[in-house]
Amino acid sequence: MAAVKPEEISHPPMDQLQGLEYCIDSNPSWAETIALGFQHYILALGTAVMIPSFLVPVMGGSDDDKVRVVQTLLFVEGINTLLQTLFGTRLPTVIGGSYAFMVPVISIIHDPSFAMIEDPHLRFLSTMRAVQGALIVASSIQIILGFSQIWAICSRFFSPLGMVPVIALVGFGLFDRGFLVVGTCVEIGIPMLILFIAFSQYLKNFQIRQVPILERFALLIATTVIWAYAHLLTASGAYKHRPDLTQRSCRTDRANLISSAPWIKIPYPLEWGAPTFDAGHAFGMMAAVLVSLVESTGAYKAASRLASATPPPAHVLSRGIGWQGIGILLNGLFGTLTGSTVSVENVGLLGSNRIGSRRVIQVSAGFMIFFSMLGKFGALFASIPFPMFAAVYCVLFGIVASVGLSFLQFTNMNSMRNLFICGVALFLGLSIPEYFREYTIRALHGPAHTNAGWFNDFLNTIFFSPPTVALIVAVFLDNTLDYKDSAKDRGMPWWAKFRTFKGDGRNEEFYTLPFNLNRFFPPS
């Protein structure tokens, strides 16, 4: 038997992911672009509906209030996505709502000064204004860190090895949004999961007019089929005598969004009234802004790979964080109940349908703005049951996580040092947030429980986030443990050329600002 050659058992590292149909600056036909953009809009609805659906009732808000918050959140998401794709990192990323802001927002909701208000609607408005004020103040963190290039300086301590657990846990860290939610209605969740995998992977070579329809539009087709099936089950009375939780998860008519939505409503700043400001609320919210910054950093790295672009240089990454801070400021001004971060599920969809086009994401932003103003139509799509979104998340979050693991190809994984850092950061990144989550469920408050509420919110928010814990552990270990003699093992020779804008000639193609704006904002 002939000896096996080394190249037959190994794969050379590759700067850009291969096998994509369209990369960041190439575009499908306009008809396909519009359909693909609508698909990203449908996917973004999951988080945009879930967050207000949980928070608004706790605040004392009605179904009308919930619909207005969902519409406002989608409207601001569309604006922020356009700003990010035009002037930020310019990567094909949807900027959506963030679960990282739930801890400080819930803390504000339970503030005794609001809890004692008897009128539910007045309590809702007072709480909303307090959240707005905290978001407006906290947004300054990302604006300053981003536009001053401080985050670019911080990112020089990152290496491919250090980024592996961060990017991986951007996906894996959202496991509780996956099958745990699918399990609340398995009769539609599991068929959705099976159908989505079948269309996007097993039937991906099925073509009509040389277009792989099933792979490219797997989400739209599977959603249409299972949504119709769910509506049939609802109409036939299949859930009539089932528990309330099952009915809320499975029925297509329990969200009360369509009946409560106005036909036309244009969101505008300060529509809830003048924001109120409290130092304790703002400080707790700053922790969520820092978590959003870390999670978005990992998501931007993943998006660049799935768009077949080079890793964003430090200058570009910091610029994107600055514009994300502007987005959180808009969240505060409009009143969305949450801040902004990169939508991880939409990043995963880039890999699932192999379309990394920036224009597709910009079209999806147009759909967000358009349907947020046409209330009834937007509410129709927003009534898709949550387990259907969760089924797709099981695939898309996994894709993003695997992109993080792909950065291991630039490191030496025969090094015990690297194995130690990667393993410990991944394990603690999952284990510590899980401890904080379980503790909070049992005790009804986080492990940090002192008389200083702002301190509690800050610590609990930071350590609730798997990517943030992973970043703290991985970057600390990577820059203190035998770092002088391990540059090659860490992947630094490969990483170095992407640190600066001019370090690689492809950066200009991917990240140059439009309208010749680089004349006024020269890259470093």
Describe this structure in words.
This protein is mostly helical and about 525 residues long. Helix content is about 65%, strand content about 0%. It is built from 26 helices and two strands. Strands 1-2 form a two-stranded antiparallel ribbon. It is globular. The termini are far apart. About 55% of the residues are buried. The mean pLDDT is about 90. Its main location: membrane. It is found in: Membrane. GO terms for molecular function: transmembrane transporter activity.
List keywords for this structure.
65% helix, 524 residues, two-stranded antiparallel sheet, 2 strands, mainly alpha, Nucleobase-ascorbate transporter 2, NCS2, transmembrane transporter activity, transmembrane helix
Largest sheet: 2 strands, antiparallel
**Contiguous helical run count:** 26
Instruction: Provide the structure class.
Output: mainly alpha
Please tally the β strands and state the result.
2
Could you tell me how far the N terminus lies from the C terminus, measured between alpha carbons in angstroms?
Answer: 55 Å
Q: What fraction of the residues are assigned to beta strands by DSSP?
A: under 5%
Strand order of the largest sheet: 1-2
Principal-axes geometry comes out as: globular
The low-confidence parts are: none
String of helices and strands: HHHEHHHHHHHHHHHHHEHHHHHHHHHH
Rg, rounded, reads 23 Å
State the helical fraction.
55-70%
Mean pLDDT, rounded to whole units? 90
